[in-house]
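Example 3.2
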Amino acid sequence: MVIINTIADTRESILWAKQQGKKVVLIPTMGFLHDGHLSMVKAARRQDNGDKEILVVMSIFVNPLQFGPNEDYEKYPRDLTRDASLAEEAGVDLLFAPSVKEMYPAGGSLTAVQVSRITEVLCGASRPGHFEGVATVVTKLFNIVQPHEAYFGQKDYQQVAVIRQMVKDLNMPITIRSFPTVRESDGLALSSRNAYLSSEERQQAPILYRALQEASARITGGEISPDRIKAAIKQRISEESNGKIDYVEIYRADDLSEVEQITVSIVIALAVHFGTTRLIDNIIVEV
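Structure, written as C-alpha cells:
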C-alpha cells in the first residue's frame, strides 16, 4: 500500500493504474477505521476475481465543512498510523490522506455543492450545512480520484441518498454502492464516535437497534401508522436509557419522502444523544 498526501500525486498514481486497465474503487472515510469500513475494502477486493484488476483507493480526511460551530471537529478521533495499518491489512492499495490545507488551500471553499429537499429532513434538519459540506467534499474526492465505483455504508442512509442524487443530477459517471451496517454483537452500529461513549452510555446504546427491530416487527405484524411506530420507539428508548432523542422519523426508503401510512418500503431513522455523543441508526422495512 502507498500513502499519498497530495492531490497531484494521487491523480498521477490513479492515471497510471487506469492506463494498466485497472478498475478504480473509492472508499471515502474520515478515518478511525472500524470493521464497517474494512468490510467494504474486502468487498472491493473480492471483485479481483472478475474481468478487471481492482485498484482500491481509500481516503481519510476529517472534513471541516461538514461540522457545525459547536460540533466535534477538533476532538474527532484521528490516528493515521493505526488506520494505515488496518487499511493495508484489509487490502487497500492507495491511501489518500490529505491535509486541510491540501484540500482547501484558501482555508475554505468559495464553491459549494447543494442538494435540496432530501437534505432538509433527518440529520439535515438538526445539522444545518452538514450535507452541503458532505456533497462538496465528496465532489472534490470524485474529481481527484475519478473512480469507477464509490462505496458507502448504509448506517449513514441519508448521506448515501444525497450522494446518489448528486451523482444522478450532475451526470457523474460513477456507480454508488451501499453496504449493510456492521454491528457489534449486541447490535450497536459501528461508528468512530462510539469511542466517545462512557461505559454506562455504551451499555445503554444498544437500545437504539432493539427499538428499531421491535418497530420492524410491529410493521411486519400489520401496523401501518407511522405515528404509533415512532411513539413506540421513543417510549422504548426513554424507558431504557438516558438518551436524549434528536429525532425518530419514518420516510419512504427510495426517496425520503413522507408517508401517511406504511404501505411501501420505508426507512426508520433516528438520532440520539448519549451525553455529548450523538449516535445515528436506521433500519429498512420492506413492505
